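To whoever is on call:

I kicked off a structure prediction for a single chain this morning and the downstream step that reads the tokens threw a length-mismatch warning. I double-checked the sequence; it's 462 residues and nothing unusual in it as far as I can see. Pasting both halves so you can look.
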Amino acid sequence: MYINTKHLQILHLIKNNSNFNLNDISEILNMSPQHVKLHLKDIYEEILERNISSIKVDEMLKNISNFKNAKKILRKSQQFTKNQKIFYILFFLSKFKNINFSNISKELDLTTRNLNNYKDTINNILKVYSLKLYISSQGIRLLGSNFNLKRLNYFLFFKFLIEKDYLPYKFRKDILDNLNIKSFSKLKKDICSFLTLLNSHHSMHQQATLLAFFLTFKGNIKEKTINEISFDKCLKYKPSHWKIDFFYEILCFLKNSSFKYIKTEFLYILFNIIDTFTYSKVCFTNSIDKDIKSIQNIFSQYLGDHILDNSIFFPAANPWIYYCKIKQLFFIDDFSLINLNLEHIPNSNVLNMTKKIREIIPSFNIFEGLFLWFILSKNEISEDINIFVFKNIERNIVPIIINEIYKKHSIKITKSFNSKEINEYLKNNRVDNIVTVENIKIYHKNVTVKNLYFPVPNYRKL
């Protein structure tokens, strides 16, 4: 049976969210229900070691959720996907420049013929880095400059750090064997301090970006490092739009952290990375700007028109749209969201909004949707009049819900009403936003309706 990354992702999602049904999994992983059902059948047969002819999906989900060693069993059976084979080859080519074909053909179940089928995909990736693949009967070679090989290696490390939880065992072991870090705890602490200095939202993606950069561009004995060059000589690397105080603050930190071993010639790449976290200017192309404006309009449909004038929108959204472009280029299979408890997605509109954005940016998934929703919903305009509307909820629970809405979403509720009272109230009073937790259908052209999931998970016990 062919067990791959997708089976492990589905299993992880089920284990973390025991109440999920087939449609929940389908929506969050952006798969058809039928496709999910086939994967569930594979998982069920693999962990219980028996074929199934007719079993209900709910029963399968329950049994999979309760099976203790399911992940361990799937791990042993996991095989390489086509894309994983491609990037496994690229990783070792970027490290050794050439590979003897016999060294990888058995491990990846490759022949010269099916490797040629991957050639176009590999060359399209390499084209961005001015590199080229050369295949002969003796083996595979990567042609290009050392500088471009380093750049490729950087993005490969980043990809593997994002995907590490779902890579096949052999893949993870070979990559981990190449992570030569003397003091990982210090490096991790330095990365967190760096992000704090940049006043940036801490995310696994940003930490992975800096870790991949360190792994790729740290210098050796013969190369000049940040620690060996004066402040004045570093000035030539300063982006023109950076303030001099900010530049010196960054440089001072670098010289006193694990990053002091970075080669000076790669400083401009590090400053470009900082731009994606802080300034959101230089590295963004016209195509990204166009996509940003399109998704800003979509966000305004769900969060209100104030998003169109919100100064935080572009700095918050730019890095994530840029990241989606990288995901597309490197076929990054990012399901960081599976590590979250998704049984209570913060707003039931997030999935619908994500689907609309995916029509413009196919690699945009629920993780980006959730992250940006949290950032932007915290910027609720203080003058807005938000009212809470309910239908099937006991009145004594309403104050608890209102309090939870404020804590979880930073939305301050002015008043609360039963749905039967709302039309009369709207005739005589100004309202900017209506908030509900029951997907009550309310239509009013001048009022934004936000449908939240019930913010008190154990409300039935109250």
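Update from on-call: the warning came from a stale cache, not from the record. Cleared it. Sanity check on the structure: The longest strand covers residues 413-418.
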